[in-house]
Amino acid sequence: MVCLGNICRSPLAHGILEKLIIENQLSWTVDSCGTNGLHDGESPDPRSIREAKLHDLDISKQISRRITNDDFIHFDLILVMDQMNYFTVNKLAPPYQKEKIQFLTEFAFPGENKPVPDPYYDNKFQEVYSLIETCCNAIVTKLK
């Protein structure tokens, strides 16, 4: 799961999908990261933590980090939140790994390249949580 700073959207996506993995007894691994590294070593945004807690989900122990070359090797999918993340991750990816990069929303809204809006400035964490949850449920339904 990839967003800009790895403090709002991708931690929520990480936590939601991780919960679904456990509930569905899947042997998947999920992680999250950001493209800019400005928040490396930090916990998720308190507003993301609060929104997750409203849904009985604890993401407070996640630690922000920047995407690395190893992510392209270790993960089958690199799911990005918006066009800017897609562009940045695509630039970083080795040519033979670019097919792994998709919009998180692709599974719920195929072909739309629909962005997951960044709630950092507009505080729309509830709406973002709902969209991410819809997408994560679609991922589990389609890939399990």
What is the secondary structure topology, with strand pairs?
Layout: E1 2-3, H1 9-23, E2 33-34, H2 46-54, H3 69-74, E3 78-80, H4 83-92, E4 101-103, H5 119-122, H6 125-143
Parallel strand pairs: 1-2, 3-4
Helix pairs in contact: 1-6
Account of the protein in words:
There is one protein chain. With 144 residues, the chain is mostly helical. It has a single domain (2-143), classed as Response regulator (Rossmann fold). The chain has six helices and four strands; from the N terminus they run βαβααβαβαα. It has helices at 9-23, 46-54, 69-74, 83-92, 119-122, 125-143, and strands at 2-3, 33-34, 78-80, 101-103. The strands form two sheets. Strands 1-2 form a two-stranded parallel sheet. A two-stranded parallel ribbon has the order 3-4. β3, α4 (83-92) and β4 form a beta-alpha-beta unit. α1 packs across α6 (125-143). The longest helix has 19 residues, at 125-143. It is globular.
Key terms for this structure?
Rossmann fold, mainly alpha, two-stranded parallel sheet, 144 residues, 7% strand
CATH first level: Alpha Beta
| CATH homology-level superfamily | Response regulator
Portion of residues in helices?
40-55%
CATH architecture: 3-Layer(aba) Sandwich
On the 0 to 100 scale, the average pLDDT is 97
Total domain modules: 1
CA(first)-CA(last) distance:
18 Å
Tell me, briefly, the overall form: globular
Q: What structural class do helix, strand and pairing data support?
A: mainly alpha
SSE string, helices as H and strands as E = EHEHHEHEHH
Q: What is the percentage of strand-forming residues?
A: 5-15%
- Spatial arrangement of strands, main beta sheet: 1-2
Total beta-strand segments: 4
| CATH fold call | Rossmann fold
Unreliable segments (pLDDT under 50, ≥5 consecutive)?
A: none
What is the CA-atom radius of gyration, in angstroms? 14 Å
Biggest beta-sheet profile: 2 strands, parallel
Number of helices: 6
